[in-house]
Backbone:
């Protein structure tokens, strides 16, 4: 069989029958290049029981990828440049897809804002009703050189605006964690995170800030929401139909209880649940019930301000809740790992007050929970989409049918 020479390469993000990569075989000093079909190769490495789409362009975004879907179904990913492009991976990049992930377009150009002195990381992304894109991240800048802080950057529809500081600590070691960004129906931006402050020098406090709507808006002063013991971690933020923010977090000063902070009643206040669970993701339904995925096998419902209850675990098939999603009919979807096999991600649906008896398997040959970051994206869609980053350079899309 003659050697078939390879004369050109294409980006192999969406494997097809004709996509190949070369293997050089040289046992006797006479090298021969064989072409291995990518589609056949990946079918051995990835063995899903539901369809998976490799997202073109997702391979250009590195490890800190975060994802978002807007009300029109447009998909966004944000991260630092890393794999696939020969560019400085300190650069921030956002990709957008308007066709369900079949094609991706970079929003503007890669951004390496002046004054940032460390690589941006730990991203959060949201999109307002006018299509303006906000990204939240942490980095050190020249104005506050001793401390990593929360920063914000806005795509105004034509260009990326200058970086805006959201927190302004300047003491070494006061690194923010668990940052989250949401935007309400009036296009006000809300951010929450955990960080040591001058009022709490030993461990992190729960912090909140908001930004006025529109291009050219400004951030206010940081509000520190828990007491000076500084015991907050694992914060997540969401807004209700009245545009009130709700922050769920782990309160280390109160038996590690799952706790809510909200100003829905007119002023900020906190109430702990009865559950020592660590929140992992939030969704909200049409009646403003908040569902909280946790790192255990528990889903907690917040049916009104400070009224917690546990969603039944009867019928749950697996023992972790990596991410939760919700559709336009208020059905829940939970992405979990298979505790017995420690391989693969499964999606189970909760509808009519009960868990479905079967789960969709998204099975991988060698990828476990530790290799996967899962995003079940929101109630804007009749069928939620699960985005998975199984290792740096591959972003996968799965429809949560069920």
Residues:
């Amino acid at each position: 069989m003659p050697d078939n020479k390879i004369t050109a390469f294409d980006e192999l993000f969406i494997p097809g029958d004709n996509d190949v990569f070369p293997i050089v075989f040289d046992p006797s000093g006479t090298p021969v290049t064989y072409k291995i079909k990518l589609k056949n190769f990946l079918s051995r490495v990835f063995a899903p029981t539901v369809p998976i789409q490799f997202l073109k362009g997702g391979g250009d975004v590195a490890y800190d990828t975060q994802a978002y879907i807007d009300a029109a179904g447009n998909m966004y990913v944000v991260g630092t440049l890393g794999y696939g492009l020969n560019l400085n991976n300190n650069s921030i990049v956002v990709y957008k897809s308007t066709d369900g992930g079949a094609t991706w377009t970079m929003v503007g150009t890669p951004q390496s804002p002046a004054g940032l002195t460390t690589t941006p990381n730990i991203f959060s992304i949201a999109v307002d009703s006018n299509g303006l894109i906000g990204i939240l991240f942490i980095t050190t800048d020249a104005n506050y050189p001793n401390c990593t802080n929360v920063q914000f950057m806005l795509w105004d529809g034509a260009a990326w605006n200058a970086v805006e500081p959201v927190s302004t600590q300047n003491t070494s070691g006061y690194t923010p964690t668990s940052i989250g960004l949401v935007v309400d129906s009036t296009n006000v931006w809300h951010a929450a995170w955990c960080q040591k402050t001058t009022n709490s020098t030993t461990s992190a406090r729960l912090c909140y800030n908001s930004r006025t709507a529109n291009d050219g808006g400004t951030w206010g002063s940081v509000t520190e929401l828990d007491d000076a013991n500084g015991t907050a971690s694992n914060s997540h933020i969401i807004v209700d139909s009245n545009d009130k923010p709700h922050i769920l977090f782990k309160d280390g000063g109160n038996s590690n209880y799952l706790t809510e902070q909200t100003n829905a009643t007119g002023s900020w206040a906190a109430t702990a649940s009865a559950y020592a669970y660590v929140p992992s993701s939030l969704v909200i339904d049409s009646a403003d019930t908040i569902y909280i995925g946790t790192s255990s096998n528990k889903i907690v419902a917040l049916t009104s301000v400070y009224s917690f209850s546990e969603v039944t675990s009867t019928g749950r098939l697996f023992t972790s809740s990596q991410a939760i999603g919700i559709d336009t009919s208020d059905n829940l979807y939970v992405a979990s790992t298979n505790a017995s096999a420690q391989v693969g991600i499964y999606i189970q649906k909760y509808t009519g007050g009960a868990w479905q008896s079967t789960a969709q398997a998204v099975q991988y040959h060698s990828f476990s929970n530790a290799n996967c970051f899962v995003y079940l994206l929101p109630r804007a869609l009749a069928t939620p989409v699960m985005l998975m980053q199984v290792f740096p350079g591959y972003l996968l899309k799965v429809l949560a049918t069920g």
User: Anything to note?
Assistant: The CA atoms of residues 87 and 186 lie 37 Å apart. The chain has a mean pLDDT of 76.
